[in-house]
């Protein structure tokens, strides 16, 4: 677990985000040590505890809340199958045009690229799809290709 700062409007237990990396404006900020130095670029984090401290981010002109986060594997929705933890799957977009569905963006814009090989690290839950597709929400790690 590490402490960091998150925009106040996004703070809630369980909220997940990808840390894109330090921005140029952060390099001279006095909050840099708690805000960005504890996070690794291109990693995913989940808020597990909310602190009372609120800080003003001068670089982006917003209030930031201090939180505790843990690193997590990204979520991915896949077509249902007899998948198990540690299995390797090939990412395929689930094409859907139901923009009112809570899972629309996760199906159409997965956090992995189409064709990536991903190791399943957790099976979260079955998804109730309004189009009656059998879908599962999983967590996964991209497998690195070795040449």
Keywords:
2 helices; 147 residues; 8 strands; four-stranded antiparallel sheet; mainly beta; single chain; elongated; 2 domains
Structure class: mainly beta
Shape: elongated
Total count of domains = 2
Helix content: under 10%
For the biggest sheet, the summary is: 4 strands, antiparallel
Helix and strand sequence: EEHEEEEHEE
Q: Determine the number of helices (DSSP H or I, runs of at least 4 residues).
A: 2
| Rg measurement, Å | 18 Å
Uncertain segments: none
Could you report the average pLDDT, rounded to the nearest whole number? Answer: 91
Taking strands numbered 1, 2, ... along the chain, how are they ordered across the largest sheet? Answer: 1-4-3-2
What does this structure look like?
The chain has 147 residues and is mainly beta. Helices cover 6% and strands 44% of the residues. The chain folds into 2 domains: 2-72, no CATH class; 75-142, no CATH class. The chain has helices at 32-35, 104-108; strands at residues 2-7, 16-19, 43-57, 62-72, 75-79, 88-90, 117-128, 134-142. A 4-stranded antiparallel sheet has the order 1-4-3-2, with no helix packed on it. A 4-stranded antiparallel sheet has the order 5-8-7-6, with no helix packed on it. The relative contact order is 0.19.
Please specify the SSE layout and strand pairing.
Blueprint: E1 2-7, E2 16-19, H1 32-35, E3 43-57, E4 62-72, E5 75-79, E6 88-90, H2 104-108, E7 117-128, E8 134-142
Antiparallel strand pairs: 1-4, 2-3, 3-4, 5-8, 6-7, 7-8
Describe this structure in a few short sentences:
This protein has 147 residues and is mainly beta. It is built from two helices and eight strands, in the order E-E-H-E-E-E-E-H-E-E.
């Amino acid at each position: 677990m590490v402490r960091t700062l998150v925009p106040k409007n996004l703070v809630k237990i369980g909220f997940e985000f990808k840390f894109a990396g330090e921005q140029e404006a952060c390099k001279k900020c006095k909050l840099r040590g708690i805000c960005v130095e504890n996070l690794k670029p291109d990693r995913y984090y989940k808020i597990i505890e909310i602190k009372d401290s609120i800080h003003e981010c001068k670089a982006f002109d917003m209030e930031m809340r201090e939180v505790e986060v843990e690193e997590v594997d990204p979520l991915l929705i896949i077509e249902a199958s007899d998948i198990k933890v540690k299995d390797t799957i090939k990412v395929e977009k689930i094409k859907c045009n139901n923009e009112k569905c809570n899972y629309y963006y996760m199906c159409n814009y997965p956090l992995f690229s189409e064709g990536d090989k991903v190791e399943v690290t957790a099976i979260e839950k079955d998804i109730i799809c309004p189009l009656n597709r059998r879908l599962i929400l999983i967590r996964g790690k991209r497998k690195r290709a070795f040449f």
